[in-house]
Protein backbone atom coordinates (compact mmCIF):
# COMPACT_ATOMS: atom_id res chain seq x y z
CA UNK A 1 0.00 0.00 0.00
CA UNK A 2 1.29 3.45 -0.87
CA UNK A 3 1.18 6.13 1.78
CA UNK A 4 0.60 9.83 0.98
CA UNK A 5 3.84 11.64 1.73
CA UNK A 6 2.86 14.06 4.44
CA UNK A 7 6.35 14.47 5.82
CA UNK A 8 8.10 15.47 2.61
CA UNK A 9 7.22 19.14 3.05
CA UNK A 10 9.86 19.39 5.77
CA UNK A 11 12.91 21.43 4.84
CA UNK A 12 15.87 19.55 3.40
CA UNK A 13 14.34 16.12 2.96
CA UNK A 14 17.25 13.84 2.01
CA UNK A 15 15.46 12.20 -0.94
CA UNK A 16 15.02 15.59 -2.59
CA UNK A 17 18.77 16.20 -2.54
CA UNK A 18 19.54 12.75 -3.99
CA UNK A 19 17.01 13.04 -6.84
CA UNK A 20 18.63 12.81 -10.29
CA UNK A 21 17.72 12.29 -13.95
CA UNK A 22 16.83 8.64 -14.50
CA UNK A 23 15.27 8.06 -11.07
CA UNK A 24 11.85 6.42 -10.95
CA UNK A 25 9.50 7.94 -8.37
CA UNK A 26 6.02 7.11 -7.14
CA UNK A 27 3.63 9.97 -7.87
CA UNK A 28 -0.09 10.58 -8.26
CA UNK A 29 -0.86 11.02 -11.94
CA UNK A 30 -2.63 13.06 -13.21
CA UNK A 31 -1.86 15.57 -10.52
CA UNK A 32 -4.66 16.13 -7.99
CA UNK A 33 -4.53 19.88 -8.67
CA UNK A 34 -5.49 19.38 -12.32
CA UNK A 35 -9.20 19.94 -12.88
CA UNK A 36 -9.88 16.58 -14.50
CA UNK A 37 -12.64 14.07 -13.97
CA UNK A 38 -10.05 11.29 -13.74
CA UNK A 39 -9.17 10.10 -10.26
CA UNK A 40 -5.41 10.38 -9.68
CA UNK A 41 -3.70 7.03 -9.22
CA UNK A 42 -0.21 6.20 -7.94
CA UNK A 43 2.02 5.59 -10.94
CA UNK A 44 5.71 5.24 -11.59
CA UNK A 45 7.13 8.40 -13.11
CA UNK A 46 10.56 8.97 -14.60
CA UNK A 47 12.59 12.03 -13.65
CA UNK A 48 13.60 13.78 -16.87
CA UNK A 49 15.04 16.92 -15.32
CA UNK A 50 15.62 18.49 -11.90
CA UNK A 51 15.88 22.27 -11.85
CA UNK A 52 15.79 25.18 -9.45
CA UNK A 53 13.57 28.17 -10.23
CA UNK A 54 13.47 31.19 -7.92
CA UNK A 55 14.78 29.18 -5.00
CA UNK A 56 12.32 26.29 -5.43
CA UNK A 57 13.27 22.89 -6.76
CA UNK A 58 11.17 21.31 -9.50
CA UNK A 59 11.21 17.96 -11.29
CA UNK A 60 10.00 17.21 -14.79
CA UNK A 61 8.22 13.84 -14.72
CA UNK A 62 7.24 11.46 -17.51
CA UNK A 63 4.27 9.15 -16.96
CA UNK A 64 4.89 5.42 -16.70
CA UNK A 65 2.36 2.79 -17.74
CA UNK A 66 2.28 -0.89 -18.72
CA UNK A 67 4.54 -1.78 -21.65
CA UNK A 68 2.94 -2.93 -24.87
CA UNK A 69 4.07 -6.04 -26.66
CA UNK A 70 4.88 -4.32 -29.95
CA UNK A 71 7.54 -1.80 -30.89
CA UNK A 72 7.76 1.38 -28.80
CA UNK A 73 6.64 4.76 -30.03
CA UNK A 74 9.23 7.32 -31.08
CA UNK A 75 8.86 9.14 -27.76
CA UNK A 76 8.70 6.14 -25.40
CA UNK A 77 11.34 4.58 -23.21
CA UNK A 78 10.59 0.93 -22.49
CA UNK A 79 11.97 -0.88 -19.46
CA UNK A 80 11.37 -4.55 -20.22
CA UNK A 81 14.36 -6.70 -19.24
CA UNK A 82 14.10 -8.34 -15.80
CA UNK A 83 17.32 -6.68 -14.60
CA UNK A 84 16.15 -3.20 -15.66
CA UNK A 85 12.75 -3.77 -14.04
CA UNK A 86 14.41 -4.80 -10.76
CA UNK A 87 16.81 -1.83 -10.73
CA UNK A 88 13.99 0.63 -11.43
CA UNK A 89 11.88 -0.82 -8.61
CA UNK A 90 9.03 -1.67 -10.96
CA UNK A 91 6.63 -4.60 -10.69
CA UNK A 92 6.16 -5.18 -14.42
CA UNK A 93 7.53 -4.10 -17.81
CA UNK A 94 6.87 -0.37 -18.11
CA UNK A 95 7.01 2.29 -20.79
CA UNK A 96 7.61 5.94 -19.99
CA UNK A 97 5.80 8.41 -22.23
CA UNK A 98 8.31 11.22 -22.75
CA UNK A 99 5.76 13.58 -24.30
CA UNK A 100 3.33 13.27 -21.38
CA UNK A 101 5.37 15.25 -18.93
CA UNK A 102 4.55 17.49 -16.04
CA UNK A 103 6.65 19.84 -13.90
CA UNK A 104 6.11 19.38 -10.17
CA UNK A 105 7.68 21.13 -7.16
CA UNK A 106 9.63 18.63 -5.06
CA UNK A 107 7.61 19.48 -1.96
CA UNK A 108 4.28 18.62 -3.66
CA UNK A 109 1.92 16.22 -1.93
CA UNK A 110 1.54 14.26 -5.19
CA UNK A 111 4.75 12.36 -4.34
CA UNK A 112 3.95 9.16 -2.43
CA UNK A 113 6.12 7.21 -0.02
CA UNK A 114 7.02 3.85 -1.54
CA UNK A 115 6.92 1.05 1.05
CA UNK A 116 10.19 -0.56 -0.08
CA UNK A 117 12.32 2.57 0.09
CA UNK A 118 10.46 4.81 2.62
CA UNK A 119 10.88 7.66 0.10
CA UNK A 120 9.11 8.50 -3.18
CA UNK A 121 12.15 7.12 -5.06
CA UNK A 122 11.37 3.59 -6.26
CA UNK A 123 14.61 2.91 -8.09
CA UNK A 124 16.87 4.08 -10.88
CA UNK A 125 17.26 3.25 -14.55
CA UNK A 126 20.13 0.98 -15.53
CA UNK A 127 23.08 2.48 -17.41
CA UNK A 128 21.81 1.09 -20.72
CA UNK A 129 18.32 2.52 -20.13
CA UNK A 130 19.78 5.92 -19.15
CA UNK A 131 21.77 5.93 -22.40
CA UNK A 132 18.59 5.15 -24.36
CA UNK A 133 16.86 7.99 -22.49
CA UNK A 134 19.66 10.40 -23.45
CA UNK A 135 19.40 9.38 -27.11
CA UNK A 136 15.61 9.83 -27.08
CA UNK A 137 15.89 13.27 -25.48
CA UNK A 138 18.48 14.37 -28.05
CA UNK A 139 16.27 13.11 -30.87
CA UNK A 140 13.17 14.84 -29.46
CA UNK A 141 14.94 18.17 -28.96
CA UNK A 142 16.90 18.31 -32.20
CA UNK A 143 15.36 20.65 -34.77
CA UNK A 144 16.37 18.58 -37.80
CA UNK A 145 14.34 15.59 -36.64
CA UNK A 146 11.16 17.57 -37.00
CA UNK A 147 9.24 15.34 -34.61
CA UNK A 148 5.80 16.58 -33.62
CA UNK A 149 5.62 17.82 -30.05
CA UNK A 150 2.20 16.39 -29.16
CA UNK A 151 1.17 12.74 -28.72
CA UNK A 152 -1.78 13.10 -31.11
CA UNK A 153 0.51 14.48 -33.83
CA UNK A 154 2.82 11.50 -33.31
CA UNK A 155 -0.10 9.09 -33.67
CA UNK A 156 -1.12 10.77 -36.92
CA UNK A 157 2.45 10.65 -38.21
CA UNK A 158 3.07 7.01 -37.31
CA UNK A 159 -0.37 5.70 -38.09
CA UNK A 160 -0.50 2.16 -39.43
CA UNK A 161 -3.26 3.13 -41.84
CA UNK A 162 -1.86 4.24 -45.15
CA UNK A 163 -3.23 7.28 -46.85
CA UNK A 164 -4.02 6.36 -50.45
CA UNK A 165 -4.69 9.04 -53.01
CA UNK A 166 -8.16 8.53 -54.33
CA UNK A 167 -8.85 9.18 -58.00
CA UNK A 168 -10.95 12.18 -58.86
CA UNK A 169 -14.38 10.99 -60.04
CA UNK A 170 -17.14 13.05 -61.60
CA UNK A 171 -20.60 11.61 -61.35
CA UNK A 172 -23.25 12.67 -63.80
CA UNK A 173 -26.76 12.30 -62.68
CA UNK A 174 -29.86 12.25 -64.80
CA UNK A 175 -32.48 14.81 -64.07
CA UNK A 176 -35.46 13.38 -62.41
CA UNK A 177 -38.78 14.12 -64.00
CA UNK A 178 -42.03 13.80 -62.22
CA UNK A 179 -44.38 11.37 -63.83
CA UNK A 180 -47.80 12.84 -64.35
CA UNK A 181 -50.85 10.99 -63.32
CA UNK A 182 -53.03 10.04 -66.23
CA UNK A 183 -56.22 12.07 -66.32
CA UNK A 184 -59.32 10.20 -65.68
CA UNK A 185 -61.60 10.40 -68.69
CA UNK A 186 -65.09 11.43 -68.01
Characterization of the model:
By secondary structure, this protein is α+β, with helices and mostly antiparallel strands. The protein has a single domain (3-144), classed as SH3 type barrels. It contains four helices and eight strands. It has helices at 14-18, 82-88, 127-141, 151-157, and strands at residues 3-4, 23-29, 41-53, 56-66, 76-79, 94-105, 112-113, 121-124. The strands form two sheets. It has a six-stranded antiparallel sheet with strand order 5-6-4-3-2-8. A hairpin with a 2-residue loop joins strand 3 and strand 4.
Percent helix, as a range, is: 10-25%
Distance linking N and C termini? 95 Å
Helix/strand order, N-terminal first:
EHEEEEHEEEHH
Number of strands: 8
* CATH architecture type: Roll
* Assembly level: single chain
Q: Which spans have pLDDT < 50 for at least 5 consecutive residues?
A: 1-12
Write down the CATH topology: SH3 type barrels
Number of helices: 4
The proportion of strand residues reads: 25-35%
Q: Determine and state the CATH class.
A: Mainly Beta
Strand order of the largest sheet: 5-6-4-3-2-8
Mean pLDDT: 77
- Count of individual domains: 1
Amino acid sequence: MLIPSVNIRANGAPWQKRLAVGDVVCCLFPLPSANLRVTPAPRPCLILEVCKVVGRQYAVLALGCAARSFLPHVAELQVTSPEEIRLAGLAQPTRFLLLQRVTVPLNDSAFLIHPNTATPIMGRLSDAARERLRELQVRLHSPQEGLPKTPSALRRRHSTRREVARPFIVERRKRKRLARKPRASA
